[in-house]
Amino acid sequence: MTADAVAADETAAADVVAGDERLRRWRMVLGGGEADGTGYAPAGRDAAMDAALEALYGGGSGRPAGERSAGLGGSAPRVARWLGDIRTYFPATVVQVMQRDAIDRLGLATLLLEPEMLEAVEPDVHLVATLLSLNKAMPDTTRETARAVVRKVVEELERRLASRTRATVTGALDRSARTARPRHRDIDWDRTIRANLKNYLPEHRTVVPERLVGHGRSARGVRKEVVLCVDQSGSMAASVVYASVFGAVLASMRSIATRLVVFDTAVVDLTDRLDDPVDVLFGTQLGGGTDINRALAYCRSRITRPADTVVVLISDLHEGGIRDEMIKQVAAMKADGVEFVTLLALSDEGAPAYDHEHAAALAALGAPAFACTPDLFPEVMAAALEKRPLPST
Known about the structure:
Blueprint: H1 3-30, H2 45-57, H3 76-89, H4 92-106, H5 115-120, H6 125-133, H7 140-176, E1 178-179, H8 189-195, E2 200-201, E3 206-207, E4 214-215, E5 224-231, H9 237-251, E6 256-263, E7 267-269, H10 277-282, H11 292-301, E8 309-314, H12 323-336, E9 339-346, H13 356-364, E10 369-372, H14 377-386
Parallel strand pairs: 5-6, 5-8, 8-9, 9-10
Antiparallel strand pairs: 1-4, 2-3, 6-7
Helix pairs in contact: 2-3, 6-7, 6-9, 7-9, 7-14, 11-12
């Protein structure tokens, strides 16, 4: 056989393998049944993956797409086995999506009240939000397991976010404390040169710095106050989780006095729990109505140094209270010198459905509303502390 013939055979074999892989992938996507048209019969690991997908999404075996499958049944042990299977066959990011779909599509929320179920799930922010919504119905036998799940997620978020938040915010505090008599290592050379351009000497090609501009060093004691005012309605669940973590991080910084206020139709001040974000989260009650006006009135009553205060309202702005009074509260704080930031969400999912009219009214007051990812939040806080334009605007 010639070399060309061998190469042709190898190419043909590779095409067959590639074709089989395409059929396999389409079969796993389509879910089988008479209409999939692939002719591929999964076996081994593929069969186990297919069974796990079929149990959740149905659609195969002649059932209409989207119809609820009975594959998971109502048995907690059976669901726990299914959760173990998907963790075996799929990466963690896919497992988290499948868990959320199972809770939404198959009504598994109540099964999360059983310890063996909680031990089988892959913890993430959305699972924490679901657990918090079930907090009041949670039996004592499950509560400690639930706290362990929540703590695992919180600690992972702190590892991811804390050091960058502290570094960014500390830098902003230093920059906001400008001084005209800086030590050499604290001189802001860019600002110093710009402030002294009139003293440029062409013959020496240099600038004579008559006035130095520098950064102040972090002083002892509180220099700024931050108020996180968080809507705890159901649509803001992930935002509540992230806000609790950031609140705890900011509270650990001695130069910032941090207050955390959560609200629905009532207002709850959780500042005294900020040393443990897990306690903060279990102090929330997701769901219910929304009275932003009442929450802002409470926050305003606790501000003692308006010019040194940043208020961060985290809400979708669907006001159930008095709309005009809500806008007046923000206008009054701005007039007092408070830096006001409105976040429609603090999550990775983007902006939820929100009240566009209220957002426009706040923007007209100089408090533009936008969604913020957790990774962007340190930059938003730094900009607010320095009273410069926010990074998203």
